[in-house]
Every structure is written in C-alpha cells, then in structure tokens.
Design brief:
Layout: E1 8-12, H1 16-28, E2 33-37, H2 41-52, E3 63-66, E4 77-80, H3 96-112, E5 118-121, H4 126-137, E6 144-146, H5 150-164, E7 171-172, E8 175-176, E9 184-185, E10 191-192, E11 195-196, H6 197-203, H7 209-220, H8 222-230, H9 235-249, E12 254-263, E13 269-280, E14 283-287, H10 294-312
Length: about 325
C-alpha cells in the first residue's frame, strides 16, 4: 500500500499569471495534484484540458483538473492570482480598493471548505492583499505569504549578472520593501560570487554609484516597461511563485524575499512587506533581520509608512 503524502496545490485565477504558474509547475514536476479555480469555469476547464495534454512530457506525473472551493479542504497550498490586473500607467497601489473586495469573497469561500494549509498571494498590491488574506482567513501569520519582492530580487540579480557578465545564479542581491515604487536594493549586502559589491566597485574605475542607481531604477520600473510593451507581466512572476512553492513543499528552509508579517522586526509592526525569510513546510520559519545601513533603514521605513497609509484609505 502506498501511503506517500500527495501534495495538492489549488490555484485561484486562471489569467496569464495563474496559467504561467500552472505551466511552470507541470514542467518542474513540483506537485502531484493541481486544481484550477476561476469565476469563468469554462476557461478553467479549457486550461486544465490544455495543460493535461502536456503531462506526457512532464518530469513526473501530475493530475490537473478544474475544481471548486471545496477542493481546498485537503490542499497543502492555495495560490491566489485572481483579481484585476495593473493597467498601463496605473500603480500597484491604485488597485487596492478593487482587489480588496474580490479577495475578501475568495478567502471566505476558501475557508468555508475547511482549508488549513498555506496561502500564497500574488495579486497586486501584493503586500496589502496578503494582509487582507491573513485577516480574513484567521490563519497564523506564518502560513500567509505574499510573493513580495522575490521577482524584484530576481530582476536585480539578472541585471547585475548581465552588467558584470557573470552567471545570474552567482549574483547575491536583494530588494526589500513594498513590491512597488518604494522598494529598495540592499546594496550594503550585495555580492558577486564571494566578493562584496563594494570591493567589486573599488576595482572598476568606470563603475560609479550613479550607475548602480540607474540599474536599480530599471529593475524597479521593469513592470511598467513590460506592461507598456506587451500589456502584462506573467512569466517572471509565474516562475517566482513556483520557486516559493518548491521551498514550501520540499521543506527547503530557503531564504526568499517574500511578503511576510512583521511583529517588531526592523522596528515595524502589523504590516506585510518584502523581507528575507526562511521558507519551509510550515510556511515562514522566521523573518531574517538584515543589518541595514542608515540610508537603507530610512528607505525601508518610508516603504512601510506608504503601505500603512494606503491601507488606511
């Protein structure tokens, strides 16, 4: 008899982000069951059919179907990508009111099923909607996670890798704060391989701090540039969500810059925001408090205050 635990992931929202996540999940063989839920049931059914036809080429077997909120009862993880997308010229924070209403209904429906797993939120503004999910669900803060600045950090690593002509996987750099306009790079802790960024800068006469700032601005505004050109961003965030999913289901104890609840860390309380955290099977094992320099502390506090002010509206 096979008593192996079956990992079930439920995806709520089969738009471009949700489907990029589902496609990456199948290609990376992350879970045994993937349930798709969407207000448009025919769309969810069509996506499940299409994805299933690729299963023969997947690295491991997976069962994919369009389901209902009742399927959340025995789910290990519920990933929410549903909601209204960011329009050209619109900031993530401008989406607050519209998506908060949608989220309250979704989370209530999920909790009615008896769900007792982990939430992973991707919909923007992600920090605020992760807070809404936590409040509405009543689950412990460790089991409600937002995608935070995982994608932003990946964008920064990619950009630095290109600039220094180094494999992006050997670039260690984080972006923290709001997933949006007030995010900040932690330059003081960045490194290229084993060498600190300061040391790399000292050796390159042609590289000035203003140049780094320009690189960061391109990273921060990447979503605007992509939306302007193709209408939406979805591949990068889809793969970022799979990375977090793997860290959870495989009990990796990986450090990722997710949107986590602060309860005194960084001198802040009662806010979800992008910070490095250790992710394992139970969700967030711990939030890591980086020793920020004075400028970074100031920027981070500003980011928190912008989020909190927006939540009061």
């Amino acid at each position: 008899m096979n008593n192996k635990k079956i990992n079930r992931v439920v995806l709520v929202g089969t738009g471009a982000v949700g489907c990029s996540y589902a496609y990456s999940m199948i290609n990376q063989g992350v879970a045994e069951e993937l349930v798709l839920i969407d207000l448009n049931e025919a769309k969810a059914e069509g996506e499940a059919m299409d994805l299933n036809h690729g299963v023969p080429f997947a690295p491991s077997p997976i069962k994919v179907w369009n389901g209902s909120y009742q399927d959340c009862e025995s789910a290990d993880l519920v990933v929410i990508t549903a909601g209204l997308a960011q329009k050209p010229g619109e900031t993530r924070l401008q989406l607050v009111e519209k998506n908060t209403k949608i989220f309250k209904q979704i989370v209530k429906s999920i909790m009615k099923s008896g769900f007792d797993g982990i939430f992973l939120v991707a919909t923007n503004p992600v920090d605020i909607l992760t807070y809404v999910t936590w409040k509405e669900s009543g689950l412990p803060k460790e089991r409600v996670i937002g995608s935070g600045t995982v994608l932003d950090s990946a964008r920064l690593r990619f950009t630095l890798g290109q600039y220094f002509n180094v494999d992006t996987r050997n670039v260690h750099a984080y972006i923290i704060g709001e997933h949006g306009d007030t995010e900040l790079p932690v330059w003081s802790k960045a490194s290229i391989g084993v060498e600190g960024l300061d040391s790399v800068l000292a050796k390159k006469n042609d590289l000035k701090e203003e140049c780094l700032e320009k690189l960061f601005v391109n990273v921060r505004d990447a979503a605007y540039h992509i939306i302007e050109r193709k209408g939406a961003t979805f591949y990068g965030i889809g793969m970022s969500l799979v990375r977090i999913t793997k860290a959870i289901l495989n009990n990796e104890n990986s450090i990722l810059t997710v949107s986590a609840y602060l309860d005194g860390e960084y001198g802040q309380k009662d806010v979800f925001i992008g910070v490095p955290a250790v992710i394992h099977r139970g969700g967030i094992r711990e939030v890591l408090e980086i020793d920020l320099n004075e400028k970074e502390k100031e920027q981070f506090n500003h980011s928190v205050s912008v989020l909190k002010d927006t939540m009061k509206l």
